[in-house]
Please model this.
Amino acid sequence: VYNASHIGGLFSVFNADAIKTVRLTKGGFPARFGGRLSSVLQIDMKEGNMKEFKGDATLGLISSKLTLEGPIIKDKTSFIVAARRTYADLFVKPFMPPSTDLTLYFYDLNAKINHKISKNDRIYLSAYMGNDAFGVHYDASQEEVGKGESPEESILDFGLGYGNITSTLRWNHLFSDKLFSNTTLTYSKYSFQTNFGLSATNTYDLGNENVDINFGYLSGIEDLGVRMDFEYAPNPNHDIKFGISYTHHYFFPGETNLNFSIDYPILDTL
Model:
């Protein structure tokens, strides 16, 4: 996860209803965290109730959340799903002028499936998806005009959004009481985008002048990784951890597009 908060820091990116444990390493990173420059925050999701179905819902003034968990196959397969969404823009809308529409919300979804293959094998599939959106749509033609005046024909759009997608497939295998392994496949993507658009029509005696401007910017990072971790405990006082990992990084630091056009009225002369 690359952004740590929603809507400018008002909400944490982590849904507490889906979290089991949190561990923070501020410095002196173990070798398995090689390449880290700042700190490491390890978050383990809940695994879902294997005995009975449970649900929890919270309704708030500007946000709500829902958590569902339970067995798919009792004592063998379980799931948990936790979702949140804000709707502050719906409460602001009645106070906005008719010519302006505001978009301001975030949503996120956590999901996990836990399956016992055998006594010594267990598989986990988890995913997270979250997105923040802010936008303004202004239509000048809806503005009130004085008597004898013609309405201005122009539309302004501005948008800003960013979000994360992460998914993990993990296989836990117990070789013996002293040795076990985790084999993990991971995928993550962070993207940021903004756009600006202006469309206007000016009326003259000779005809109409049309102006269209569209600007967009997109950046982000995409990771695909695989790792194998082993932990060996020869006795209660010692344990040995070793493994191997590979991560493929794909960076797109900035993609920009700009479209600009003006249509002038044409004067025909004889």
The mean pLDDT is 86.
